[in-house]
Amino acid sequence: MLSDNRSRRLQSLFMRGAAALLLSLMAAAPVMLAASHAGAQTEKPVSGGTMTIINGSDIKSWDPAITAGTYPGGPMDVLDAVYGFIVYVNDKGVVTGGMAESLTSTDAVTWTLKLRKDMKFTDGTPYDAEAVKYNWDRAADPATLSPAQPFISSWNKAITVVDPQTLTIKLSSPNANFAAQVAELCPFIASPAALKVAKEKTDIKPVGAGAFTLTEWNQGISMTMARNPGYWDQPRPYLDTIKFAIIPETNSRIATVVQGGATMMAGYPYQFGSNATAPGVATREIPIRGINRAYLNQAKGIFTDVRAREAFYSAIDRARLMQAFTQMPGYKAPSNYFGENSPYFDSASSLPAYDPKKAQELFDALKADGKPFSIKIVTYTNSDLKRLAAYIQQVLTGYEGASAEIVEVDQASLIQRCKTQLDFDICVEGGVLVSNGAEPNISNLLSSGGAFNWGQYKSAEMDAALKEASSTLDPAAVKAAYGKVQKLVATEMPLYIFGEQTRSLLLRNNTGGVVPSNGGILQKQFLYVCTDACQK
Predict the structure, then answer these.
(1) Which residues are within 8 A (CB) of 533 and not within 5 positions of it... i.e. 6 or more apart?
(2) pTM exceeding the 0.90 threshold for the entire prediction
(3) Please, which residues have CB within 8 angstroms of residue 184's CB and are 6 or more apart in sequence?
(4) Lesser CB count within 10 Å: N end or C end of the chain?
């Protein structure tokens, strides 16, 4: 950890979230806790004004089915402003009502979605159960190319529209995490009328019922949105205008906030340095634990051999890798997917530790079998990730029979290069993936059809353990199932877990209404400009 104080603060935050999770699992009442504005601002909100949020890359399409990463500064951050999350996961890990009032179940099999009354898209058509069904049926069609297609296609045929505000979904087997998975994978609903007239994805116009409407899109540079006067939750949104500025380089993003050219950016304390104490600037921690990870291609190439995955873990000191990445000392390499403060953590199942001798033995054995360890590292053009990739390359070249090539792509192209084309051996995505609770991300990462399983890891045993964990509300049974998951992670090494961090916002100190959700995306309807400084 970066400091003892910060470690204790993170531990306290995590344990509170874990306690809430265990309480919800022990309850026999509805699986999903439905609420409207849990965690909303405590300051008195002010209407009017403009904020500019910096994102690292532009979106490729306004298609609500093309979702990728519920983290601040990512593509879904922009889609949320127009469409709004149908439900979202708050920073305590609780699924919360958004555009819908609730998504609940008493048995984890039959789920009921209750929409708010009289909602309309900005084209005047109703945001009703038929519209939701149309969007989910569309995303379930492989031709839509939705990343969530495997997930949605497993249940969309079992949707029943009960009335304009209600639909039910009957799953083929119990899934206690279904609501959280919807929030992560398919939360956006667009006007069916707007989707039907678009012949190509590039023709889709962003017609939603969210807090804002698009007024200008200067591709690759910025987009401007105006307050939606028909938004269901008046007087929200408070802002008149919200802007997104596209700035790929971290240092440029920081300078823009410090100089007052933007309201906020998402990042990590190691990136901010002394800029965090500049005049008019504040920081705000997003108390959501995440893991730094890289994907290992197990569909083709050297990492199809588990010995290569073990060699890679053994060859690199992950604490030093994090130091090279962040330029700060003091990191401790996580021993598994779950953090040490997780109720599911099992110290008996640990990833391979740094062991240069073992690594060389494995490299030699691979070479003797005609499998020289030569890998392609794919990442995007970010100064932090460049340092990380360069460190991996430098360390590997110190071993006999090991080498690495670095390929840099722009952030928006990383998914296509890695997930779609599988043109990598190791693919490093910036930022952290939320792991303050087990689901939905652990299944997305590790199940055979998982949306985040870029490495194409497939294990019937892992699939069974994940299903077992999500099919019960008994805390002891859940913990036992995740024990099996951890053992498989430690022995099969399906991905490379090299660090854990929490995100932070660097923001102007007059920024109010900061309500993080999912992986840290702010619920923009709550944002407002304070009359005076309201952040420290």
Answers:
(1) 280, 282, 509, 510
(2) no
(3) 70, 89, 440, 441, 444, 518
(4) C
